[in-house]
Amino acid sequence: MTMQLQSKIYEADSIGAVQELYHSNGWTDGLPVVPPTEDAVRACLDWVMMPPDQLIGIEPVRGLAITAEKLAINAVMAGCLPMHFPVVVTAWTAMMQEPFLLHGATASTGGCAILVVLNGPIRHEIGASGTFNALGNSDRATSVIGRAIRLCLINLLEARPGAIDRSTLGHPGKFSFCIAEDEEDTTWKSLSEQRGLPKEASAVTVMAAGAPRQIMNEWTTRPEEILETFAADIRANLRHYSIHPGNYALIIPKQLREHLQAAQWSKTDIANFIHERARIKRGEWAEVGKGAVVRDKADKVYPALESTDHLLVIAAGGPAGGFGAVIPPWLGNKSRAVTLPIGACVDCEPPKK
Amino acid sequence: MTERFVSAAETMGRVLGMPGYGFSTIEHPVSSADDAGLAARARAAIEQGCRLLVQQGT
Amino acid sequence: MTFRVLDPTAGEAAASGQRAPRLGTLQGKTVGFISNGKVGTKGFFAHLEKMLREEYGVAQVVSRTKSNYSAPADAHIVAEIRQWDAVVSGIGD
Lengths: 353, 58, 93
Description:
The structure holds three protein chains of three kinds. In chain A, 32% of the residues lie in helices and 17% in strands. Chain A is an alpha+beta fold.
């Protein structure tokens, strides 16, 4: 395999000098970076068996070719090891699918981050944990994979704050927003299986997502009551943030999950319930200071989900605590979550000799 | 462009291979401006825009 | 110890087109508006149209709104541009 890298090479005489070189050029997320040496980048490319110029996709607004080499450089900077790189490649392939609307999702004032969900055997291979601190710094793998996504956006799409990235606020997920599903400790189908992939496939789901909103209901075991708390939080998002329907993600840790499973509720049952309960009337906007845009449509009903398929239910989180999380979409009717198996590539060619 | 998106316009011009692409700048925001405010913004857009669209000296 | 490290950026794109020739005048011309459809744009473009017609002699104004304000203009709108003498569009909200 040809391993001639195309990127310009800089020389720096210390780790500190490397940091200042990258920070001063706007090539970081503000945190220190791992120096992307030729050997480290080649190791990532070797692992996925791709030549440097392997085309991962074209970002359509700029007509920009995204190559394996450029993803690998940013992945190394984020702290990825070669074994993490297949996830980064798959996530980016998914982000460049048309329904995801990559440019809009990363340039908008709405300030979303890219939620990345891992399923399948890859989680064990890379040590991704779906239990304690699932939405925080749970483990090395999810931390660096999520960070690699952001560095690629900064350096390849120029999604820097105040430049292409017009986020008014953003949220902390823009540093890293990657979670592994806790598939072993649930009776439910995994997210990727629910979305149509084979159970044994390793897969990545990406979603343009707002910040997580934590809910709590440790005072009941009834599924309808537990899920009503989630639905109420989605209704609040429709009222306070955006009325547009889209993908919502629910993170359901073990304590609440066990009650739902004991009552034989599947992810499909959860989606049916949320689809019915998570909706508001436009007139409710007048109760939260948005009366100016109610106009004559006060009785119009806005569901959070156009279809039950749009709810992403994810089993993750530590074993104790009656907590859950709602992750709302950036702009639900513009960007759709995409799920891809790892190892699938679109229009790929065999590695050149 | 509304004034708070000037840097986005400059960056997109550069990213699309046309650095320095000219544009009009109007007051931000548009969404909460009243009718008089929208008229003023249209006036500003035309006065700057015509210099960009039409050969100067004609 | 010298570190040889790689550039993580994609570099500049080649120009995706070139500037159209400037008009000699707006008198008698057709101007197209491509709006993102956000709140306020209707009133803004209404004032713009009135000024262009009454003060600059523009003969026709064609108004189009993108189907998605966070994406480039729809292909059918872009295709119409060749029938116009000038386009007005923008970024903002």
